[in-house]
Design brief:
17 helices; alpha/beta; 3-stranded antiparallel beta sheet
């Protein structure tokens, strides 16, 4: 209760949760077990709708059981399979997060369902668009974040600038910080920057409940922030049609060393390289397969349960914030 009081924000009140921590809806990683564990530990867990797989989505919502969770979608991919939103809403999620595309076609349906609409943005223009679409929460994502992103803004400057933008408009929309946050220091810093909470991906990639392999989690815990790169090579080899300007933060390996900067050659190489990649994923061979995390990798020392990760984030932040207020 002491931690909850210290970390009570506009976001926790809006979502009726204890702690201002959301686990990112990482495609193929954030399943129902992870989302449920985060929610049961006092945060909000999001299931990753990813590129759209109906059977996967049903299975993972079922795995979440009776936990109060949300769901996230890659917006441009959802536009190709809009019925998946109806499927997700049938599970009565607490929130739906939309990233990387125009949220307008889906905003009304999300809000009419009673779910909160969370929109991830990477610059001020996107923030304006999300507000106009009726977003209940904005996620300000810096380039430090794992997975996909666009633009060049860092979390440290983007968060307060968006907070100031909303304040100038007398808006009460909460902002979550995303990118480079993996411990209590990051959560406390985000709140000091004007955020109402954080959205964390990389640290939950290494959670026991994540749909990642033990080998992948071991690679993460051995990495530093310098081990990451932003690249498009995995989108090329997987055949994903990401909009121009979007790149993916992963840990560097032999595959990125060979193909980063040679994406046209990679595309021309065709299925033989694609087959090698798919086999590497099946074999958990991360010299070729992707480990999709951001610069926070250097703050992740060991794999842990989602509950322990939540405890570390919240206790650490409450302690730091209390010391600065004289508590």
């Amino acid at each position: 209760m002491l931690f909850a009081s210290a970390l009570s924000t506009a976001f926790t009140e809006l979502l009726d949760i204890e702690y201002p921590v959301v686990s990112a809806p990482m495609a193929d990683v954030a399943g129902g077990r992870l989302a449920a564990a985060v929610s049961r530990a006092g945060g909000l867990g999001l299931i990753g709708g990813g590129y759209g797989d109906e059977n996967w989505l049903r299975r993972e919502f079922d795995r979440a059981g009776d936990a109060r969770v949300g769901c996230g979608f890659i917006t441009w991919a959802l536009a190709e399979q809009p019925a998946l939103l109806d499927l997700a809403l049938s599970y009565r999620p607490a929130a739906v997060m939309l990233s990387f595309g125009d949220p307008a076609p889906f905003a009304a349906a999300v809000r009419a369902s009673g779910a909160r609409l969370i929109c991830q943005v990477q610059d001020l223009d996107q923030a304006d668009r999300a507000v106009a679409c009726g977003a209940d929460v904005l996620v300000a994502q810096g380039v430090e974040a794992g997975g996909h992103g666009c633009g060049r803004r860092t979390t440290m400057t983007l968060v307060p600038e968006i907070a100031d933008l909303l304040a100038a408009r007398d808006s009460t929309i909460p902002v979550l910080a995303a990118g480079g946050i993996a411990d209590g220091r990051g959560l406390a810093a985000a709140l000091m920057l004007g955020a109402s909470g954080v959205l964390c991906g990389s640290v939950f990639y290494a959670a026991d409940e994540a749909l990642t392999t033990p080998a992948a989690r071991a690679v993460v815990t051995a990495a530093t922030g310098d081990s990451t790169c932003r690249t498009g090579v995995y989108d090329v080899v997987r055949g994903y049609r990401w909009p121009a300007g979007h790149t993916m933060s992963v840990l560097r390996n032999a595959f990125t060393d060979r193909w980063h900067g040679a994406e046209a050659e990679l595309a021309a190489a065709g299925d033989p390289v694609g087959a090698q990649y798919r086999q590497a994923v099946a074999d958990a061979d991360y010299r070729t397969a992707n480990v999709t995390v951001g610069q926070a990798a250097g703050l992740i020392r060991a794999a842990a349960s989602a509950g322990d990760i939540m405890a570390g984030l919240t206790a650490g932040a409450a302690r730091l914030l209390g010391s600065r207020s004289g508590g």
